[in-house]
Write a structure and sequence with these properties.
The protein is mainly α. About 60% of the residues lie in helices and about 0% in strands.
């Protein structure tokens, strides 16, 4: 099942990862522990569907970064 994202979750995710940017590697990706922490951080914002897993967080982030790089 594909994760359902509301705008508040996306904004909170981007802000969280921006605030933790020092933890990112040279490729812009984060360690699993950072994605787990991001999932816990946005959990209170859940509107629909299941809570976001760290894999869903990573997928959303890499998609977001890819979109920004193309724009």
């Amino acid at each position: 099942m594909k994760a359902q994202w509301c705008d508040k979750e996306v904004r909170a995710l981007v802000r969280f990862l921006y605030d933790h940017r020092a933890e990112a590697g040279n490729n812009g990706n984060f360690k699993s522990s950072t994605y787990h922490a991001a999932a816990r951080h946005i959990a209170p914002l859940l509107k629909d569907g299941l809570p976001k897993s760290s894999a869903a967080i990573k997928n959303k982030w890499t998609g977001y970064v890819s979109h920004i790089a193309i724009s």
